[in-house]
Amino acid sequence: MRLTDLDGQNVTIWGLGREGQAAAQLVLETLPDLPLTFIDENPAAILPGPLKGHRLATTAKQIEAALELTDILIKSPGVSLYHPLLEKLRERGGRVSSLFNLWCGQTPQLQKIAVTGTKGKSTTASLLTHVLTKMGRKAVTLGNIGTPVSECPADADTVCVIEVSSYQAADFESNCAMGLLVSLYPEHLNWHGTLERYYADKANLLAHCQTKIITAQAYDVLSAHGLTFPDAVCANDPAHFRFEGDTVWHDKSHIGMLANAYLARAHNKANVCAVLSACAALGLAADQALAAMGDFQGLPHRQQEVGQRDGLLYVDDSISTTPQSAIAAMEIYQGQPITLIAGGQDRGIDYTVLQNYLVAQVNIQIVLLGEVGKRLAAVLKQTLSERTHEASTMDEAVLIAQRTTPDGGVILLSPAAPSYDMFKDFTARAAAFLKASGF
């Protein structure tokens, strides 16, 4: 869909956050006289100054009435594509789009590389931008990482590395030069409805990318669900880029040593291989790309070692929202005493793999918070009652962790669940952890 397709239509934007406002700005730059309707489910929402004079619906009755008059809805990512009101809109012939789709349709001259995955997409997108920049290419990171795609410089020489969430991938209908899928695990089932649809929505992004790069883990998951891409490059497959220890090979060719302790962590190696595959597809030398990774710094809230206090190491992994990501964080400190602070919003995913992992460990104390915390506690207290603790606040959780973690141990915030039952977002959760820890 192009912006000119909106001319003369009744256009509604659902969401007054940063993405919704960016969508409005993009539309009004091309169609300044187009009247817009905004939807926001926050009853206290108000239109910001530049949007005064347009319509706003906030109550359930107002929202339903607005959608009945809508020809084209531009929705923010957090609004489920499968929301009953959106289903009703489509049934009567209305169309649903997004900032991502509109911007892509408006900028065919830009080289776009889309990066998605259940976990690792922010690190991979940032690492790719870092490498491209160090190798003399213009590159920017956009999208789900925090910068709306419409803020990309309109420079045909710039490589746009776009982090794409499953919400944005689900209805993507434009085209990207390259797509990277770096991991797939159960997640966001409350938005997608079913696990099968979550995987299919992720795969939809790749279907619209000319060059497809998929890690071996994600490739196996897709194949198991009947989603195949025969033309894809399997990033960390023995025939392509792979690790032997900390050394990178491509098929039978030795590339070099990865001189970055953060990226050498087991879960990051697949991300490195995906970035090397992307660089190779762009015609860049793999050994130079690998060398450019040497000074890459990990992103905040992703296994971030924030400091030591009174003989304990504090680690902020607040971005962790899946059992697999929490396990990956604990694996880094295997052999050390660990106190895991976990729990958060319950989105209906299976925690058996995390429960089994914790049962198999002998040096991990567990402090549980929130909705998922209650679920886990009900199971873990049956076999791990002496190591399982419950807390009602982050302050209480950290205090319990400090009391139960022996000298030389690790207090690890890796919640394995979203934050929204107790906090605004994962950064607010991390801030509460740091404050309670004295940092």
Task: Summarize the topology.
Layout: E1 11-14, H1 18-30, E2 36-39, E3 55-57, H2 60-68, E4 72-75, H3 84-91, E5 95-97, H4 99-106, E6 111-116, H5 121-134, E7 138-143, E8 158-163, H6 166-169, E9 176-181, H7 189-192, H8 195-207, E10 209-214, H9 216-224, E11 233-234, E12 241-244, E13 247-250, E14 253-257, H10 266-281, H11 286-292, E15 304-309, E16 312-316, H12 323-332, E17 338-342, H13 352-360, E18 364-368, H14 370-380, E19 388-390, H15 394-404, E20 410-413, H16 426-437
Parallel strand pairs: 1-2, 1-4, 2-3, 4-5, 6-8, 6-9, 7-8, 9-10, 10-11, 16-20, 17-18, 17-20, 18-19
Antiparallel strand pairs: 12-13, 13-14, 15-16
Helix pairs in contact: 5-10, 15-16
Name of the level-1 CATH class of the largest domain: Alpha Beta
Structural class by SSE content: alpha/beta
Low-confidence stretches: none
Q: Can you say what the CATH homologous superfamily of the largest domain is?
A: Mur-like, catalytic domain
In total, the number of domains comes to 3
CATH architectural type of the largest domain: 3-Layer(aba) Sandwich
Task: Give a count of the beta strands, DSSP E runs of length 2 or more.
Answer: 20
Q: How far do the termini sit from each other? A: 48 Å
**Rg on CA atoms, Å:** 23 Å
- Main-sheet strand order equals 7-8-6-9-10-11
